[in-house]
Amino acid sequence: MPVIKHQQFIKAPVTVCFDLARNVDIHTQTTSKTKERAVGGVTERLLEEGDMVTWEAVHFGIKQKLTARVITMEKPYKFVDIMLKGAFHSFIHTHQFVEEGNGTIMVDIFQYKSPLGLAGVIADKLFLQK
User: Fold this and answer.
1) pLDDT of 78
2) Is the model more confident about 52 or about 125?
3) Considering the entire predicted model, what is its pTM?
4) pLDDT 10s digits, 31-70
5) Distance CA 32, CA 121 (A)
6) CA neighbor of 93 nearest in space, from 122, 64, 123, 71
7) Which residue, among 94, 98, 96, 90, has the nearest Cα to 110 in the 3D structure?
8) φ and ψ at residue 99, rounded to 5 degrees
9) Superfamily designation of domain 3-128
């Protein structure tokens, strides 16, 4: 299963970073390029453990939907969501927050399996791993 890991230092307290990362309204504002919006389940507020949300966005010129459920919530250091329905064969997204000096290191870990066998592997190499 391929893994994409991204880290970013944010000059803000861990509680602020954690709440912003699980805020549906903020997520929609920061993904305007792909016109992402919540269209089902929780469509506003902070996500909590057990919550489900369906996102609609335009990727590669195609409107797509992805439904995810928050399966783990360890406030304010970690939450995990998994794809229930969408373009991937499977998808696990771990959000971690580590207090560091005068801020927070936000770590996103995406573990996924693409659909379509060999065609999915080629798509991984061409698009997703970059």
Assistant:
1) 98
2) 52
3) 0.85
4) 878 888 999 999 999 999 999 999 998 877 888 899 999 9
5) 28
6) 71
7) 94
8) -65, 130
9) START domain (3.30.530.20)
Cα angle 21, 11, 7 (rounded to 5 degrees) comes to 60
Question: Tokens for 55?
Answer: 């996102």
| 81 vs 109: CA distance, rounded Å | 11
Look at the block and give the residue holding tokens 């299963």.
1
Give domain limits for the chain: 3-128
DSSP 21-84: HTBHHHHHHHTGGGT-EEEEE--SSB--TT-EEEEEEEETTEEEEEEEEEEEEETTTEEEEEEE
Q: How far is CA 31 from CA 27, 38, 71, 77, 113, in A?
A: 6, 11, 23, 23, 23
Give the Å distances, CA to CA, from 40 to 57, 59, 67, 81, 88.
13, 19, 8, 15, 18
First to last CA, the chain: 16
| Cβ-Cβ contacts under 8 Å for 20 (sequence gap 6 or more) | 26
Q: Which amino acid is it at 26?
A: I
Q: Answer whether 112's CB lies under 8 Å from 91's CB.
A: yes
